[in-house]
Write a structure and sequence with these properties.
Strand content: under 5%
Largest sheet: none
Structural class: mainly alpha
Radius of gyration: 15 Å
Shape: elongated
Helix content: 40-55%
Number of strands: 0
Distance between the termini: 46 Å
Order of helices and strands: HHHHH
């Protein structure tokens, strides 16, 4: 079992999480999971069309390597709150 040792910020970056000072657990980003739940087929293509970027960059947003742009986050919120 792996335990955090040393600098918590460096450990969070190493395992692709976010360090929140004052708390003792590392929080991962949930954007990719939410986007995959909303658009299960070709998730990266949907995100790329909304963001106006290529699929490779969209895959980076979904993986949590980069923060998604505001237009994509707003589209996710609209998709979640729309009623049919």
């Amino acid at each position: 079992m792996r335990t955090a040792f040393g600098n918590p910020v460096a450990t969070a970056i190493e395992i692709r999480g976010q360090f929140r000072p004052g708390r003792d657990k590392i929080v991962t980003r949930k954007f990719g999971a939410v986007a995959k739940a909303l658009w299960p087929d070709k998730t990266a293509a949907h995100v790329a069309s909304i963001a106006g970027c290529d699929e490779r960059q969209a895959k980076r947003y979904l993986a949590g390597e980069y923060e998604a742009p505001l237009s994509v986050i707003l589209a996710v919120i609209v998709e979640m709150t729309m009623t049919v």
